């Protein structure tokens, strides 16, 4: 569910926006409606953990949009909502579009088609981001379970390798994991392939030496508890569990 705060004192706009945008996107839910900056800040504080999106109407009389955005930022929310600004005047949008909290802008129109298209795309991206976050947490949990040290740099690198293989879903990436995936992670971080490989090997050695042998044997279906899983085996096993 995407929880939305609408900041506007224009009842006609709110009705049009709700009927032609909110009602057409099933995961959208209005958390609150505020008509001025004070009501907005109160609503944000009350819904700080559940607010995903703020739609800020810049046409509110006497509204200092930049000041309001700075006040929102100063709250230092753990879960900071995205902000879409909307106005009938492009100059007002230009004044705030560069602010760090502003995700995008919407132009007021009677049919609201542009607003619907942009917010529908936002919903898709938000849902994809949540799926990626959940996937990342699951991979971290699997690595810790088999004995990887979460603070080891090599653990982070092998986690990124697993996510990369999972996203690509190509068997050839597993067949030659060092050339394909280690190099990809090295490229992302702007470091050498050897640094990535060395850290992954060290993290895997730590897992094998410090981990629970019964867990490792069962996890990788080994007959011999002395058998050591290679990074390739670790990556392919966890990918298959996702």
Task: Tell me what the structure shows.
With 242 residues, this protein is an alpha/beta fold. It has two domains: 2-129, Rossmann fold; 146-241, Winged helix-like DNA-binding domain superfamily/Winged helix DNA-binding domain (Arc Repressor Mutant, subunit A). Helix content is 58%, strand content 12%. It has helices spanning 11-20, 37-46, 65-74, 90-96, 113-145, 153-168, 171-175, 177-189, 193-210, 213-220, 231-241; strands at 2-7, 28-34, 53-57, 82-87, 102-107. Strands 2-1-3-4-5 form a five-stranded parallel beta sheet, sandwiched between helices. Strand 1 (2-7), helix 1 (11-20) and strand 2 form a beta-alpha-beta unit.
| CATH architecture label of the largest domain | 3-Layer(aba) Sandwich
Q: Per CATH, what is the topology of the largest domain?
A: Rossmann fold
Give the tally of structural domains.
2
Uncertain runs are none
CATH superfamily descriptor of the largest domain: Response regulator
Task: Provide a concise account of the structure shown.
With 242 residues, this protein is an alpha/beta fold.
Which terms would index this structure?
Rossmann fold; alpha/beta; 242 residues; single chain; 11 helices; 5-stranded parallel β-sheet; Arc Repressor Mutant, subunit A; elongated
Topology:
Layout: E1 2-7, H1 11-20, E2 28-34, H2 37-46, E3 53-57, H3 65-74, E4 82-87, H4 90-96, E5 102-107, H5 113-145, H6 153-168, H7 171-175, H8 177-189, H9 193-210, H10 213-220, H11 231-241
Parallel strand pairs: 1-2, 1-3, 3-4, 4-5
